Protein 1
Amino acid sequence: MDIRKEYLEFFKNKGHDIVSSMPLVPDDPTLMFTNAGMVQFKDIFTGAIPRPQNPTATSCQLCVRAGGKHNDLENVGYTARHHTLFEMLGNFSFADYFKEEAIAYAWEFITVNLELPIDKLWVTIHDDDDQAYDIWKKHIREDRIKRFDDKENFWSMGDTGPCGPCSEIFYDQGEEHFSSDEDYLGGEGDRFLEIWNLVFMQYEQTKDKDGKITRTSLPKPSIDTGMGLERVIAIKEGVLNNFDSSNFQPIIKKIEELSKKQITDENIGSFRVIADHLRATSFMLSQGILFGNEGRPYVSRRILRRAVRHGYLLGFRKPFLAQAYDTLCDILGSHYSELKEQADYIKEQLTLEEERFFKTIDLGMSIFNDELAKTKEIFSGEVAFKLYDTYGFPLDLTEDMLRDKNLKVDNAKFDELMSEQKAKAKAAWKGSGDTASEGDFKSLLEKYGKNNFVGYEKTFENSTI
Ligand code: ATP
Ligand code: MG
Ligand code: MG
Ligand code: MG
């Protein structure tokens, strides 16, 4: 079953307009990347622009959660369900239908179209949302409806604007496969897999001059939902980890073949990280996000360097991602034709960026290992800074290398050295061990033209979404 198509058709049949995925770079300086399907509708939800003639829409939105408030970069490779880039299916009502229909549609799609067994499904609602409770109990056993507080089940765009309780649908992957204390509903474990979040925008939040927040009921509430496609595919294929699904397996197999290493329990995380990061950086390149030292390009660089470092662990000493790119195209190229159309460009950019890091990674790793041998609790901030500044190791890469050893970087020292250096350089820094210079950009522009180029970025505040 093509779940993406099934979903969009399902909601089209319920009167929704099918809307294309918006770019990964939103037209919103406070938001690093498009991180949910609702982002392109934000101004409609707030009332800043009038609602469209058809007040209901559905989409399959490419999302990146690797920067800003939603950052899953560190989760990738450690959980079974997080990606830096993923596809979010969503249906939206702009002051049209509300809870009753949103819940009924979701339930119908999950139980009839996807044919997920009812005895594996659980739902969560907000503590105070008796209305959602009364609707849900028409569909599911009452003991399968669990209430949670604001932290889990209340959504807001920021301090002000539309907000409301949400209700999430979970799939129980079976007690027999999980043993951690975290594997309960609402925990961080993977037994109860969150698949779909239904947001009921029914309040407007305002803040007075003393900072007091007031919520008033919206006369015409709205609906925003989001379901992770990769998770649903994994469930349908009967695998417990997204990376074991057909979305990722061919890439992982290809990397296994290229590395000439066999997958083991110890190295499987590296294969997963590489497969994930290849997808994310390729899509980012396809949308004109290059590698660089600031803003979005720096996020892309961090993702790629994390992939290279895991490649290094698997024995790669020169660029390898381009060789797995065609496998990615085989999986997603028919839906995302830009991956095919820009294949040569993307492979070339991946390779150039990998080369930059492979040049210094050997030395960096040996400096890292020397320091590690001396480290008891806190890894030297000076060395972390040197790794960053001279060898191109992003701080989160160093932190990631220390994570399974339960060690932390002396961040205060790192930050101090960073500010000192910034003060010295005053403007955007140079000489960070990276060779991406204006010259590179110029030759790129000459070669590929200006149209897709997202150049210098300003610094971002935390996302408010
Ligand atoms: P989780 O608790 O698993 O981190 P979330 O509550 O942060 O998920 P939402 O913001 O509610 O996620 O997004 C809606 C849906 O998008 C989720 O129910 C999930 O199916 C999917 N999703 C969210 N983050 C990711 C991710 N990093 N990778 C893949 N799918 C994701
Ligand atoms: Mg999350
Ligand atoms: Mg969640
Ligand atoms: Mg959620």
Note: DSSP finds 16 helices and eleven strands in the chain.
Protein 2
Amino acid sequence: MEIKRATFKCSSQQLSQIPRDTLPDIAFIGRSNVGKSSLINLLTGHGSLAKVSGTPGKTRLINHFLIDDRWYLVDLPGYGYARVSKSERGEFSKLITDYVFRSEKMHFLFVLVDSRLEPQAIDLRFIRLLGEHGIPFGIVFTKTDKLSRNQLESSAARYKKQLLTEWEELPPLFFASSAKRTGREEILAFIDKCLKD
Ligand code: GDP
């Protein structure tokens, strides 16, 4: 699948503001700085789509981008952001949990993790919640250009080991580098399949 047209639709600060039509949402989430905006720009082939709405102050909103009049690519706020106020912190903001666990539009969620890091506790806690709620999700390892093939394999193996201590099955795993422009086709093909199911 290729994306021909990607346009910014809206930013929402609460669930009631997300688009009300029936087009499916495919969403992206991860810790701040994981490479989410870069990946969104890589997937859409649009140099600055995610940055447009990713200006300070808007980063904690849900951004919907309309893709080929067929589906929405949804940029969720980063979690684990050190500078949010205590009242907002919870573990995951109300906006995130409302959307991820209550929105009926969301067809699939990509959780981005930094391939260079050990499995992070906050990512594992988020993934555990997804499993408990039966949310369809996959994991994207980002910034893979920073690792050798062996290092990447060990990094993925550490995640798999962690996940298999809790779950019998692994979610789909993807490997991406926005710098090297890799991983794009696999992710887009997967999205295409999701939209057809
Ligand atoms: P976000 O906060 O999750 O949206 O992350 P950004 O896309 O803004 O990226 C955060 C930082 O990581 C920036 O300095 C990017 O240049 C860098 N970055 C993002 N993706 C990659 C990648 O694939 N490879 C490398 N080497 N750096 C990346």
Note: DSSP finds seven helices and seven strands in the chain.
